[in-house]
Amino acid sequence: MVRLNVDVVVVVTTPAALALMNASKTIPIVHPNAIDPLNTGLIASLAHPGGNVTGGAQLTAEASAKRLEILKRVVPGLSRVAGLWNPGNPALVFSWKETQGAARALGIALQSYEVQGPKDFAAALAMIAEERPDALLVVQDAVTMQQRNEIIDFAVQKRLPSMFQEKGWAVAGGLMSYGENLPSMYRRAAYFVDKIFKGAKPADLPVEQATKFDLVINLSTAKKIGLMIPDSVLGLADDVIE
Fold it and tell me: What is the structure's pLDDT at 81?
């Protein structure tokens, strides 16, 4: 892409953005949904990115706390949650620390199960099945997205309440999802591309934090695993799948 001398590149993962930054300090990069862009070194600040990257940012700390809070309201006596995540993604290292902090504040023991590629999932899921936590929390990135169906099928088969980030997981059969509305963030990326085409520099375009969040509950899955979703939680849902 650098040799092609393109006018702008839109990336969808932090590793991709970091790789492109290492290859070029001048080609504008738009990241619609960066996870913790400050700590990963993508930008200098939200207001003044300072380099060749701009776009949208996910609020990992607030969203992590909310996911665990919802799980605690849904699962009676929740005390142990299995966290499935990819430590090879620099952005998720910081996200995981924030999730751990949110768990401690809620009195939840968050157990780490690490996956960095497709070959790691069988062993990680087998360990979760053996240790029988009260619920499963998936920290989303490209690695876990690629194994989405396998993870959902596992959770349903083991009758394990599960919480995911993006709506597509709940639509595909996951119990619940709560997180940034990614379609709106991707649509907003077009704004940044347009500004850059008209002469703006990424360094001068403030990074925008997500403002729209969706809670999606799959009642069909809840029935399959024998879980009753309280009306107080159903009332908060943006979408309920029957």
Answer: 98
pLDDT tens, 186-214? 999 999 999 999 999 999 999 999 989 99
Domain 9-58+181-212 grouped into CATH 3.40.50.2300: yes
Task: Determine the Cα–Cα distance for residues 151 and 140; give it in Å rounded to an integer.
Answer: 12
- CA distances, 61 to each of 28, 74, 100, 127, 173 (Å): 28, 20, 10, 27, 25
Neighbours of 166 (CB within 10 A): 22
- For 58-94, the pLDDT digits (tens) are 877 789 899 999 999 999 899 999 999 999 998 899 8
The 3-state secondary structure of 189-208, one letter per residue: HHHHHHHHHCCCCHHHCCCE
Query: In whole angstroms, what is the distance from residue 127 CA to residue 216 CA?
Result: 27
Cβ within 8 Å of residue 198, ≥6 positions away: none
Query: Which two tokens mark 211?
Result: 């403002």
3-state DSSP percent of the chain in helix, strand and coil, to 5: 45, 20, 35
The pTM (predicted TM-score) of the whole model is: 0.89
- Fold classification of 60-179+214-241 (topology level): Rossmann fold (3.40.50)
CATH 3.40.50.2300 domain locations along the chain = 9-58+181-212, 60-179+214-241
Give CA 212 to chain center in angstroms. Answer: 14
Q: How many CB atoms lie within 10 A of CB 23?
A: 12
